[in-house]
Specification:
This protein is α+β, with helices and mostly antiparallel strands and 279 residues long. The chain has two domains: 133 residues, Clavaminate synthase-like (Double-stranded beta-helix), CATH 3.60.130; 101 residues, Clavaminate synthase-like (Double-stranded beta-helix), CATH 3.60.130. Helices cover 23% and strands 27% of the residues. It is built from six helices and 18 strands. Strands 1, 2, 3, 4, 5, 8, 16 and 18 form an eight-stranded mixed β-sheet that branches. Strands 15-9-17 form a three-stranded antiparallel β-sheet. The protein has a three-stranded antiparallel β-sheet with strand order 11-10-14, with no helix packed on it. β12 and β13 form a beta hairpin. The longest helix is centred in the last third of the chain and has 16 residues. It binds 2-oxoglutaric acid and fe (ii) ion. This is Taurine dioxygenase.
């Protein structure tokens, strides 16, 4: 077994670990400790059945079934199939999950704190997952902006990324907007939070799930969005996870920003995804 720090700013990586190894409490505790301190943990090439992935997830908290039942794993409702594969003319999962920078489910009041992905059929040369550390993003804000946003709250929304479904056919744009307002009302979160695991301040909000920072005018909001987009995506502060089959990847949803890069048409990419709430 080897444990390495992936970059100075985010991530720890285990290699040479099997599911059976995780039965040793010391190793599992090390995994949890690294997740808390490094925000993102990669376990390279660990063969797991869906049941074993679920069992590991259940040690972190309570795995929660995905909202859309169509794309739940046929046997394990807590596993969501995130995939662009089509079999017998039917998509086997949800395609293009997370193809923009975000913090998972920040548009709900209480986002589940952990996400656990297992690479089932993944290309190695595209469909990478990019990760940034939200505490590192906060640290790199100019002092002037740190002062301007101190104590402020931001409104989060899924509306920029919500997908139009069959049930919306025939609605006018105004009706669709009204439906979004009712079904997915904006939620408020502190813009700067403190991570209890590390004691570090972090930025909670990425432009694609942000409506606005409360109390800033439209120009300042636009300037702030442009600034944080640039800080989040600064290439030297981004870790690019190039997948191998069976990689297990876990992250803290609040302090980790991430985005998946595109795959070429015709290239399959399937991962099993579990959202985990605290008990
Ligand atoms: O498929 C991936 O690598 C990550 C997609 C994503 O953003 C997520 O599952 O939360
Ligand atoms: Fe995500």
């Amino acid at each position: 077994m080897a444990l390495t720090q992936i970059t100075p700013f985010i991530g720890a990586e285990f290699t040479g670990v099997t599911y059976e190894d995780f039965q040793q409490p010391e190793l599992w505790n090390q995994f949890v400790e690294q997740l808390h301190q490094r925000e993102l943990v990669v376990v390279r090439s660990i063969a797991l059945t869906p049941q074993q992935q679920l069992e590991l997830a259940a040690r972190l908290g309570r795995p929660i079934p995905f909202v859309l039942d169509k794309y739940r794993h046929p046997e394990f409702e807590e596993i969501m199939i995130s995939s662009n594969e089509v079999r017998d003319n039917k998509p086997i999962g949800i395609a293009r999950v997370g193809n923009f920078w975000h913090q998972d489910s920040s548009f709900v009041a209480n986002p589940a704190p952990y996400t656990l992905l297992h690479g089932i059929k993944v290309p190695s040369d595209s469909g990478h997952t990019l990760f940034a550390n939200a505490a590192d993003v906060y640290d790199r804000l100019p002092e002037e902006w740190k002062k301007r946003i101190e104590g402020r709250k931001a409104l989060h929304t899924v509306s920029k990324r919500l997908r139009i479904q069959a049930e919306h056919v025939g609605l006018s744009v105004a009706e669709f907007k009204a439906w979004i307002e009712t079904k997915h009302p904006k939620v408020e979160h502190d813009l700067v939070k403190v991570d209890p695991d590390t004691g570090r301040k972090y930025l909670y909000g990425a432009p694609e799930y942000l409506d606005s920072v409360i109390g800033l005018d439209a120009n300042d909001n636009a300037a702030f969005f442009a600034l944080i987009d640039e800080l989040i995506q600064a290439p030297q502060r981004v870790y690019t996870h190039e997948w191998s089959n069976n990689d297990l990847v876990a992250w803290k949803t609040q302090t980790t920003l991430h985005a998946v890069t595109d795959v070429e048409p015709g290239v399959d990419r399937t991962v099993h995804r579990i959202s985990i709430e605290l008990h």
